[in-house]
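Supplementary notes for students who missed Thursday's class. We covered one full example, reproduced here. Read the sequence, then the structure, then the short commentary at the end.
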Amino acid sequence: MRFRVEELFLDSKSDAFQLEDSAIRSAPALTPLYLVAALALLYATTHAMALQLNGLRSQVDPHWTGGLSYLKIGLRWLQGVVHKGRSLLSPIPLFHSDPEPCFSSKNALSDYYDRIWFSRVHSLLCRP
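Structure (token representation):
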């Protein structure tokens, strides 16, 4: 979970929106900027999830195994809306669980699937 949060932070801070480049240091000025960035992040992410469900992900992530984040997939599609005449998809709710996780590298993919999985153990004590 930690690395997914860090990837999200990287995407929102410097990689996708370049918020560091704004050079704004005032909290009252940063608040609306981060609100707009958060809304854009949410919109792009839900758009990428809709792409995944509609089988259109390969149009913006041709290497598929390279592992773009949902944010980057959504931003690429939205750039195509502006520059290539693609259509906007209907918004969808966020998934409770990821139907097909996006990974930043093949190492991240293998780390995810090779880790030890734990689940809750339920026991039932039967008394005579």
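Commentary. The chain has four helices and no strands. Helices lie at 2-15, 27-53, 70-84, 106-114. If anything here is unclear, bring it to office hours.
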